[in-house]
Amino acid sequence: MPLTIGFAAWSAPTAESKPQESQTSASKWQTKSVAILDAPQTLPRVLPQKHTIKKKSLKHKIVVDGSTLTTDELKLDLTRFAKTVRSVEKDGHRVGVVILDLGTNASVSYGADEVFYPASSVKAPFVISVYEDLVDSGRITRAEVSQLAEPTIVRSDNEAYRALHRLCGNKDFADWAVSTGAIEKDSKDYQQFSTVYYPDMSARQLAIMWEHCFDYLAHGGESAEELLELFERVEVSPIRAGLTNDELTITKAGWYPSDDGERYEATADSGIVFENGHAYVFVVMTDIADDLALLSELIPGIWSATSVLN
């Protein structure tokens, strides 16, 4: 399933519509996002070439789409990325990564179609889908959703998340995921998304949902502003801790401890990262049992792969 970004006809805010007071972090985020979506394309948005890079002792090939570098240059520049991934796999764990430049569609991925238990990382797309499909359409009131969305996003509260599911149901989330291109109707994925709180998914599927979320959050409106303010207060983010930049990072982590050999072990984080004028979808999923500190340490090495996209 290819990663694509749908270019809607966004309109940048006019001078008259811009507030005179200082912008909030959320409004600054939206301004930069719209600028990326509306940026004139001096080159066609066609990826020059897809490279598959095989690194010694890695389970998967590193896939680079849209880089202008040669294969030899990519192998050299991806050394730190490969070393980081290898450190996870040598301990018997799996890892899935997608980094997508939202301005150019260039991407780096690794194990993108490996299926993981997402733990709480699924809460972000679920909550955003509720605002987009149910609140904005008037099918449910903002007040009903807000009191549950805040603890779900900010503190990753499981009870609030389950209550939001009971209020809104699962089927709308499954249909929303279909609309983003992350899953297909009448598939096993659709059945899972329709029936469980934490459906299994791949890094590619989570990235596709975040790509759609970027468009929605950048568009503005009361719902998007409310959501951005919640993400600004997220208490746990290995991506934010690992990158330590000054940009507003929109992420939601997930983690689950070892459970006597069950398949639910997980440590993951995903979302939108701004750096040097670029906006990226960044997804890292692993089957490491509940180790957010370790993921924070791994993030810089994984993020180093962005060097081949610029």
The CATH homologous superfamily is termed DD-peptidase/beta-lactamase superfamily
Q: What is the total tally of β strands?
A: 9
Task: Please name the CATH topology.
Answer: Beta-lactamase
Shape: globular
Cα-based radius of gyration, to the nearest Å:
19 Å
Number of domains: 1
Summarize the amount of helix as a percent range.
40-55%
Provide the succession of SSEs: HEEHHEEEHHHHHEHHHEEEH
Helix segment tally: 12
Q: Give the end-to-end Cα distance, rounded to a whole number of Å.
A: 24 Å
Which secondary structure elements does this structure contain, and how are they paired or packed?
Blueprint: H1 25-38, E1 50-53, E2 62-65, H2 71-77, H3 79-89, E3 95-101, E4 107-110, E5 115-116, H4 123-135, H5 142-154, H6 158-168, H7 171-180, H8 188-195, E6 201-202, H9 203-219, H10 221-232, H11 238-243, E7 250-256, E8 266-275, E9 278-286, H12 292-303
Antiparallel strand pairs: 1-2, 2-4, 3-4, 3-9, 5-6, 7-8, 8-9
Helix pairs in contact: 1-9, 1-10, 3-12, 4-5, 4-7, 4-9, 5-6, 5-10, 7-8, 9-10
